[in-house]
Amino acid sequence: MRILGIDPGLQCTGFGVIDTEGAALHYVASGTIQTSPKDGALLPERLKILFDGISEVVQRYQPETSACEIVFVNVNPQATLLLGQARGCCLTALVANGLPVAEYTALQLKKAVVGYGRADKAQMQEMVKRLLQLPGLPGKDAADALGLAITHAQVARSVAAINKVSPLQAKTHAAYKGGRNY
User: Fold this and answer.
1) What is the pLDDT of residues 103-118, one digit of tens each?
2) Is residue 14 a contact partner of residue 32, using CB atoms and an 8 Å limit?
3) Which reaction does it catalyse (predicted)?
4) Per-residue DSSP letter, 136
5) What is the Cα 108 distance to its own chain's centre?
6) Using one digit for the tens of pLDDT, what is the confidence trace for 74-88?
7) Cβ contact 148:127 at 8 Å
């Protein structure tokens, strides 16, 4: 299965694509989609850049499913609103391109990849590098996106195993420790 992970952000959105074969994880691609108000782009134009960028990634790598980070609430309400708009744009791009979307919190992501929910960015980068056998550290946003894809690969295997024993409805199994899966 090919999984696309998205770490949403208005200035920098990370993406990561992995293939899974059973428990084996294989790196396909990763990177970032950048927008900057310094370029004179207004918010709607920046959101279009994100939408078009994610659509291009989906068309190029043809993932079967996707995972996106659930936004946390910041101290700065304005920053939270902008991040929420960027995240909404990312979700819309994924759904518009026909992908199912699973959502995970930063805590779930860090717990699944590093084993510690309060891991820092450097620990995430190192574990992603090790799990995917990369020659170097991925960028911070790309590492989070790859981590989301890894998290979804682990959850998908668990849900598939549970479904073999007792089929569950989407709403029931989507409650994976507060994450969402549609």
Assistant:
1) 999 999 999 999 998 8
2) yes
3) Endonucleolytic cleavage at a junction such as a reciprocal single-stranded crossover between two homologous DNA duplexes (Holliday junction)
4) S
5) 12
6) 788 888 899 999 999
7) no
Active site annotation includes 52: no
pLDDT of 93-152, one tens digit each?
Answer: 999 999 999 999 999 999 999 999 889 999 999 999 999 999 999 999 999 999 999 999
Any catalytic annotation for residue 141? yes
Instruction: Using alpha carbons, select from 69, 62, 70 the residue that is nearest to residue 19.
Output: 62
Query: How much of the chain is in helix, strand and coil states, percent to nearest 5?
Result: 50, 20, 25
Q: Please indicate if the annotation marks 45 as binding a ligand.
A: no
**Residue 15 near residue 30 (C-beta atoms within 8 A):** yes
Residues in the chain, how many? 182
Q: Which of 126, 98, 97, 94 is nearest to 113 (CA)?
A: 126
69 annotated as a binding-site residue: yes
Is 64 flagged in the annotation as binding? no
pTM above 0.85, yes or no: yes
Q: For residues 74 and 76, what is the distance between their CA atoms, to the nearest angstrom?
A: 5
Which one from 21, 56, 69, 126 is the annotated catalytic residue? Answer: 69
Active-site annotation holder among 120, 126, 141, 144: 141
**pLDDT confidence of 171, banded at 50, 70, 90?**
low
CA distance 182 to 175: 11
Q: Which residue has the tokens 């708009």?
A: 85
